[in-house]
Each structure stands twice: as C-alpha cells, then as structure tokens.
Amino acid sequence: TTFIRSNSAEGPRHHEVLAGVGSNDRGLVVEAGAVIAASDKPHDLIKQALNDLGQSDATRITTFTDGNKMLRGYLKNAGVAADPILDWQHLSRRVQIAKTTAKGLGCLTNAERRARPLIATTLDSLHWKLWHGNVNGARQAIARVFKLLAPFAIDRTRATTAIAAKRLRTAMGKLRDYIEGQSAHLVNYGL
Q1: DSSP three-state, residue 161
Q2: Burial class (CB in 10 A: 0-12, 13-18, 19+), 95
Q3: Which helix (H) or strand (E) holds 31?
Q4: Could you say which DSSP state residue 132 is in?
Q5: What is the three-class DSSP state of 21?
Q6: Per-position pLDDT tens, the chain of length 191
Q7: I want to staple 112 with a disulfide (CB 3.0 to 4.6 A). Which of 24, 62, 107, 147 is the partner?
C-alpha cells in the first residue's frame, strides 16, 4: 500500500492505494490497483488478479510485502494461505539509511576515530546477515553499533559529533524495531 496526496481543496487530501503486480510461471503479468477507501473489499482485487493469472487449488503462491499488517490481512482474506515474505527493497532501504547516516559521523577524539570504521564494517555485516535471513546475527550487529556509538555520547563540548550520533541512534532504533516486527517474514534472500 502507498499514499497519494490530492491537490483538491474538496474531500480527502490523502488516499491510501493498494497496488500490486502478479505473474505466473507462463510469463503472464497482471497489474492491479485501487484506492482502498473506494473499494468495499480490497481483497477482492487480489482475488481477481489471482483468478486472471489462472490460480487453481493446486497453485503455490508466494507473496512479497513491505510488512504492512493490513496488506497481510487482505492477502489472507483473498485466500492466500502462505505468509508473505518481507521484500528486500524495503529492508535494504532501511539499512542503507543507517549506512548513509553513519557516514556523517564526525571524529574529534581518538575513540571516535577508532569507532567510526568499526561502525561502517558492522553495518556492512548487518546488511549481509539480513540478506541471508540471519535475524539473530542482525540483532547482534545492531547491538554492537549501539555499543560502538558510546564515544559519541552527547556532550556540549562536542555538539557536532553528538548530533550525527543521535541521528544514527535514531536510524538504528527504527531499523531494530522494523526487524523485530518483521522477523517472522524474513527469509534467506541469497538462495
């Protein structure tokens, strides 16, 4: 699902949209989408797309989502029994945000100079662990980044390094929460 903003002065300005693409083994591709508020049963849109793709009782279906619980509910209501897999794009984007934020860390002390490359290495390791579905390893890498951020603790004399470290702590906290909330839907993407 995504949100689209309207320029209209009348009516709602934000519209949640359900959009998806399905394909089958024969190469047929079906695109589907609708404004959720305008649809009485969004799961019927999914059912119709599956029907158009030739779904039968024997059809094995694999779905990918951004982790949205409502979307998972639509899939269940459409008769998709298998839990959806968290798509790599959304997960990878969150790791990339942390990596980019870490590049902004300034170094004023020797402890900060030692920690910065270790943080970058740990974030690369985190990316690899998530790609291979290693949730426990990812948790350990996240904990290590938080530990490595200790030299950047907020101090009025080092405000420039503290601000960047605070941003990274925030990004890491969001990433940790996302992984915890989606861990059941992570797979080994490298297979």
Answers
A1: helix
A2: buried
A3: strand 29-35
A4: T
A5: strand
A6: 566 666 667 766 677 788 889 999 999 999 988 888 777 788 888 999 999 999 988 888 999 988 888 888 889 999 998 889 998 998 999 999 999 999 999 888 898 899 999 999 999 999 999 999 999 999 999 999 999 999 887 665 556 667 888 999 999 999 999 999 999 999 999 88
A7: 107
Residue 176 to residues 5, 96, 148, Cα–Cα distance (Å): 29, 13, 16
Tokens for 88, please give them: 């790599």
Q: Output DSSP code: residue 184.
A: G
Bridge partner list, 3: 16
Helix, strand or coil, per DSSP, at residue 2: strand
Burial class (CB in 10 A: 0-12, 13-18, 19+), 191: exposed
Give the separation between CA 66 and CA 45, rounded to whole angstroms. 18
Residue that the structure tokens 């029907």 belong to? 51
- Tell which residue, 103, 108, 106, 59, has the closest CA to residue 79: 59
Distance between CA atoms of residues 167 and 86, nearest Å: 25
- For the entire predicted model, the pTM comes to 0.81
